[in-house]
Amino acid sequence: MLNANTLCVFNVFVLFIFSLSNAFRIFDIDGKETILASENENISIQCKSDYPMTYCGFVHPSGKRFSFTDRAVNDGKCVKKVKATKLDSGEWGCHIGRKSVRLETIKKIDVRIVNEVAALEPNITAKLGRPVTIACATTKGLIPLSYCRFEPPNGKSFNIDSTVTEKVSILGKYYYPSNASLDRGDCAVTIAKVKYEDVGVWTCGAGLDDGQEHIDVIKLEVEGMYKMSTASATGVTLGGILIAVALGSLGYIAWKKRRFLGGTPPEPEVIEIQDIPRPSSASPSPRAQRVPAIVVQSPSTPGEPGMSPLMARSQSPT
């Protein structure tokens, strides 16, 4: 019978062998399987079912298809082994067929070719005021971390481990998630309540036994932030228009009131009056006859006292 120490050593040995044969790591993120692997690493992409399969097939991110009949399907599982390269990175599709149910079951598997430490989700959309977890992990098996640190988009950088709990948090908002562990290569932080200051690019850094820090980046966004910004801008624009209209109306009312109360009247409009030529007809119209003529006399000439030059010209022989 194995004693406790021998059993403990045996479990560590099995875990070590498992980590060597399966260096890549598999995560279940929101019901979607994610495989983190290194370049040129042999990985196994599995298609699983709780019921016996008739067939299963894989769809490569490029669109290429791989199919397996019931001869290659064992216990509700079929496997596609590949030597992972950058061309294999992306979303794989898994199609499962069963006799009892004619409609296929389709599952998605995300394969990412990464470095020694990688973000579990490079792009995260959170809800304002709700908690969210940002995490990185080692990709070559369960390798312990000497430290874990984060650089937020706004604010001071910090390091974190399992001693930082929700009750004893950093700045009252950052704590280490209870289901993570530095011993198995998890570098993670939970934000208690997401605020706009948390939006942006986060950098996670992890120290490995090689004495170097390995980093990756995570982009955090808030759900509906763009729509809210657009609505706010529209509201500001509409408010500005309403204020301008109100000020214009008040100005017009004040001007009308000032004019009504006897304010400074506007300057009179100058109308130019032109001379109306007298009709050329010898006999003036009746209306013209009723208008009295005004004769302005000029000083008399020396030769004819009391007679103006105009009268002199009218009496001169023709």
UniProtKB/TrEMBL annotation:
<dbReference type="InterPro" id="IPR003599">
    <property type="entry name" value="Ig_sub"/>
</dbReference>
<keyword id="KW-1133">Transmembrane helix</keyword>
<feature type="domain" description="Immunoglobulin">
    <location>
        <begin position="121"/>
        <end position="223"/>
    </location>
</feature>
<feature type="region of interest" description="Disordered">
    <location>
        <begin position="275"/>
        <end position="318"/>
    </location>
</feature>
<feature type="compositionally biased region" description="Low complexity">
    <location>
        <begin position="277"/>
        <end position="288"/>
    </location>
</feature>
<keyword id="KW-0732">Signal</keyword>
<feature type="transmembrane region" description="Helical">
    <location>
        <begin position="235"/>
        <end position="255"/>
    </location>
</feature>
<dbReference type="InterPro" id="IPR036179">
    <property type="entry name" value="Ig-like_dom_sf"/>
</dbReference>
<feature type="domain" description="Immunoglobulin">
    <location>
        <begin position="32"/>
        <end position="114"/>
    </location>
</feature>
<keyword id="KW-0812">Transmembrane</keyword>
<protein>
    <submittedName>
        <fullName>Uncharacterized protein LOC112056139</fullName>
    </submittedName>
</protein>
<feature type="signal peptide">
    <location>
        <begin position="1"/>
        <end position="23"/>
    </location>
</feature>
<dbReference type="InterPro" id="IPR013783">
    <property type="entry name" value="Ig-like_fold"/>
</dbReference>
<keyword id="KW-0472">Membrane</keyword>
